[in-house]
Model the fold of this input.
Amino acid sequence: MFSFRTQGYNGYNLKYSPFHDSRLAVAGSANFGLVGNGRLYVLGLTANGIVAEKTFDTQDGLFDLAWSELHENQLVVASGDGSLKLFDIGLNDFPIQTWQEHKREVFSVHWNLVDKTTFASSSWDGTVKIWSPSHPTSLTTLATNSCTYSTAFSPHAPTIISAVSSDSHLRVFDTRLPPPHAIHQIPVHVPPPGGYPVELVAQGVGMGNPRIDQPNEILTHDWNKYRPEVIATAGVDKIIRTFDLRNPRAPLSFLGGHNYPIRRIAVSSHSYCR
Amino acid sequence: MCEDANLQSSPPSAQRLSQLSNQISGIPSAPRDALLAKNPDDVVIVSALRTALTRGGKGWFKDTAGADLLAGVLKGIIDKSGINPALVEDIAVGNVLAPGAGATEFRAAAIVAGFPVSTAVRALNRQCSSGLQAVVDIANQIKAGMIDIGIGAGCESMSQNYGPGAVSEFSELLENNVEAANCKVPMGQLSEQMAKDKGISRASQDAFAAESFQKAFKAQQSGLFDEEIVPLTVSFEDPKTGETKKITVSKDDGIRPNMTAESLGKIRPAFAKDGSIHAGNASQVSDGAAAVLLMRRSKAEELGLKIMGKYVTAAVAGVPPLLMGVGPWKAIPKVLEKTGISKDDVDIYEINEAFASQCLWCANELGLDKNKINPKGGAIAFGHPLGCTGARQIATLMTELKRTDKKIGVTSMCIGTGMGLAAVFVNEV
Done:
């Protein structure tokens, strides 16, 4: 089993390169991301185990990263100081581009898998911004008006983008529409018509655990790779929910089992239903 | 946005700390809640039944082959659960004394019970825990995806197979290794020594045994065993008249009324003149069979079968061969650690009473609540058909959890040659 220790930095996310199956990048932050520097690791999977091919240090913690889908050497990181930085792993030390527009921590960054020329970021400043590597300012700003932990382009349509926020909402935007571009604003915690399954409601009640039928921060979400209308969300209430955007009034399903808040979920790229 | 009004002036790191710590509200759901959660890949029990347990050599099953008892209990599983027998992929049967652990006749017994030839059968022997091991093996097969539905069972005719030949001869190689040679020391002898070494008094053993009888008698009088017992109609030769007749056996015949510590105190020690173990505070030699129908929860729901509860996990542990009686003391904490629950989260402990001495010692050493142990009595009162016991205890446990509306049960037993096996079950009725 390969392993690599990001000594002094706590990993916040990692992604495989879309171009090289032996390369992955890790966004790390000192002191669990609370205070201190960040470091981007570019790791190679070699016959001798995992080796750091390159590291880049940043002033503030790094919370997410996304590989460019266009350029095999480029990747963008999301930083605690509100900046986005584009690094080229052929170069040393400094980013080739920095965008400083977000006013608070940037917690997620996601490359557009369909059009490949844009990427999106979400921030605690209550916005989602869409960017192009070749443009010095953001292309579009989408308002969520709430701390937004995660944003993602639809893997099926280049102009559809989703975001989840601390106000317990899943939002979906279509950039072809005029501002505010919104097509869905789904209150994630609202129970289905028959109410939540009894076992889920009973879990942990009275021990300071969040009630699952009350608003809770949504920390992560992902699109189903095979069913363009299905999104999974998860967060502070420890429940994973799936939604069908064709009928988003209530979740499609609930998956309990986690004992702690859920920081990250990923829908399988290989399976229709996982 | 994300700022609290009162945080506006605080440094960015404090704001960030506040924001992130808000995400971790509440404590993680307690391990007990996690244990009780229902997931589609759980292994669940749909039916758990046993035959009556009867006295070896003189009881009502004395003329009935072990495999016939198994056939009877397997048929009971089909009838009571309503399962289509063709859906059962594998049956594991624990047995200790039959030659080859009964592999051949148990396959035949499954066919007689109504299973098609497509249902596989195997026999296994882990001594006194064989019945539980069979259930654990089937559960693991389901968890691993090898099968969807299976039966873990146990069966023993001590009337037919118990005797001096029960322990095989050791080679010189084994005899010359002290610890290895200890594996052959007879149960009674080593338990007597253990009772002496651990200072378990005769009076405390007799009191424990008397309670087992009293609890079992009360349970039998109140019909508490009726739900778990499959009545079997068998041939019985009356030893007085020599006449053979058909009888239907639906009650354990080893349970005696009016047993007290005082009455047990009069019985002569069996293994040493100054010993403390005797026929009244050790498990009875018995005949019986038990079976547990297991499947993946998603399968049970798909088939619309009623779920009794779920199998959680099991642990096995080794102890010195001469201290085989302490097996549960080693295995129970191990299995609890796997699940994360504490001993107090468990509502009922079904611990085999191989000897009052070892069962009592384990319970005391683990600090278990006396009222939670064997609430309907145990092997001292109604018998320990070796290979059957592990599966029998599950039938007894699940029925009692259901009746008393309790949730979590643990079953455990010591194992000859020095081991313990323990498993955790959850009632869902």
In short: The radius of gyration of chain A is 19 Å.
